[in-house]
Amino acid sequence: MSRPELLSSHNYRSDGRRPKELRDIGLTLGSHGHADGSATVSHGLTCVLVTVYGPREAKNRANSLFDRAILNVNVDVPLFSGGGSAGKKRGRGDKRTLEFTSNIKSTFEPIIQTQLYPRSQIDISVQVLQQDGGLLQASINATTLALIDAGVALNDYVCAMTCALHDTVPLLDLTSIEESDLPNLTVAVLPRSRKITLLTLETRIHMDRFEQMFEMGGAAGKVIHEEMLAAVKRRTERLVTAMGKGGRDVQHAGAGGAATAERIRDLDFEMEDF
Questions:
Q1: Burial of 7 by CB count in 10 Å (0-12 exposed, 13-18 middle, 19+ buried)?
Q2: Looking at residues 256-271, what average pLDDT do you find?
Q3: Rounded-to-integer distance, Cα 180 and Cα 210, Å
Q4: How far, in Å, CA of 274 to CA of 218, rounded?
Q5: Which of 122, 170, 134 has the alpha carbon at shortest distance from 44?
Q6: Is the Cβ–Cβ distance between 164 and 72 less than 8 Å?
Q7: Contact, 58 vs 64, CB < 8 A?
Q8: H runs (alpha helix) in 187-267
Q9: pLDDT in tens, 102-111
Q10: Which of 138, 197, 211, 250 could form a disulfide with 48 if both were Cys (CB 3.0 to 4.6 A apart)?
Q11: Residue range 53-62: average pLDDT?
């Protein structure tokens, strides 16, 4: 069976999008009622649920730090998500899972104001519900919203995006087919300070092409940031409304519809800001 064409002669991708067009984005805060904070984020068919517990007293005081909180990250990639290979579930000791966990932890350790929570711990659990490319970007974006939902102090939002190059044409928000066939990178940006907290590159590429992909990913992060701000605003408004009704429906106060495709399609990014 032949693989689908990644980019047609008419500049359309295999799923019908333009090169700079993002998939539909869904952002929902407070989707898990028993956690201190939670968020479900979907980029197209990729869907991730992140729950946050804490800050809370460290379970093992011997490993706690007197001047700041410790950050624990757990990633679960079940079979039904489509992430297993040869019918095998990825365990916690799997190399790719360990690398994935390390990327998320190293991304948020400098962003969380851990000095405000001495002798405590913050537990982040990443549950992959479905994946079709862009798993790391979805997990980072969901973790940002889950931490905000838990009331954890952050220096800035963290907005991630995956991009690649097809010959000389940059592509944004990759599917699994595009990720497996093209050199790609994932960049996590801080919109307010315009700093980079994570940059992963899957293969070697020329420096000129790297710069082009890097700028494209940074510009797309601005779009993700706008969608996050809208989702947090919806969550806050519905919490205030629920509190005014005596606390009813607080658990579901973060249920917001997916962001409209019109806002994120055919974007004309301003590269000069990055």
A1: middle
A2: 43
A3: 18
A4: 7
A5: 134
A6: no
A7: yes
A8: 207-244
A9: 999 999 999 9
A10: 138
A11: 86
Q: What CA–CA distance (Å, rounded) separates 74 from 268?
A: 37
Residues 157-184 as b/e (b if ≥16 CB within 10 A, e otherwise) read bbbbbbbbbeeeebbbbbbbbbbeebbb
Q: What is the pTM of this model?
A: 0.85
Cis? peptide before 55, omega within 30° of 0:
yes
> For the segment 112-141, what is each residue's pLDDT rounded down to a tens digit?
999 999 999 999 999 999 999 999 999 999
Characterize the bridge pairing of strands 37-43 and 46-57.
antiparallel
Helix (H) or strand (E) holding 178: helix 176-181
How would you classify residue 133: left for phi > 0, otherwise alpha for psi between -120 and 50, otherwise beta?
left
The mean predicted confidence, pLDDT, of the chain is: 84
- List the structure tokens of 84: 């297993």
Round to the nearest angstrom and report the end-to-end CA distance of the chain: 41
Q: Which two tokens stand for residue 131?
A: 């994946």
229 Cβ neighbours under 8 A, 6+ residues apart: 157
